[in-house]
Amino acid sequence: MDLMSRKIGRDxxxxxxxxxxxxxxxxxxxxxxxxxxxxxxxxxxxxxxxxFSNSSRSSDDRVVCCDMEDFLCDGQLYRFEYGVSRFxxxxxxxxxxxxxxxxxxxxxxxxxxxxxxxxxxxxxxxxRNCEDxxxxxxxxxxxxxxxxxxxxxxxVAAVTAVTIIPYRFLPASLIGVALVVCSxxxxxxxxxxxxxxxxxxxxxxxxxxxRLSDTQNIREKMNMMENSTTRWFLRHCLHYMVTRTFVLxxxxxxxxxxxx
Length: 260
Description:
47% helix; LRAT domain-containing protein; LRAT_dom; Papain-like_cys_pep_sf
């Protein structure tokens, strides 16, 4: 595992480092920003589904500062690498490195401290998770409804590589199919990284990000209100139609009785 991710000692840590630890038998990693004095700032998930937390309880999706022991939960300490080559990026395990360069530690610590006070918005596994939080603190790059998490993007790349291949035009050889799938997977991973030269995203100031998060929360609440209003309208329309149908049947029955 150490060949695919960089394990380090605590004496190697520097404030502003993007660190992570593997959990549940190396099935996924949890990310944060080391701020010095044995403290880590990271995004935690509130109660709810694993994909996204309950939007009505967004206050439970918090950016917190905790001790290193609490962050690691008896796991090992690893450092996320920035500015790696494409070869290293493709040979390392997803979620351990990026092609993008890191900003100076001062900027990283400023973003992390600001988000500790104002929050990072609602947790979403597919678009705003702990790895996205740490990557934003290091690069200032973020995109609404787009995750830069290497773990998520690798899964998307694998599914894309397997599903979009026109198998009928490929050679019957398993080696040929495997090479095509592997090539598409690598291409998808490269194109989905924070900065590849193919798809650049703008840097968003942390002060503006807080306002964007507030706007997103307001939009989600408005959508919830619209959905509830729509359900209320449809329910009352259905009730009205059923009632009118019943009254009409009663009128017809009474009319037929009077004719008899």
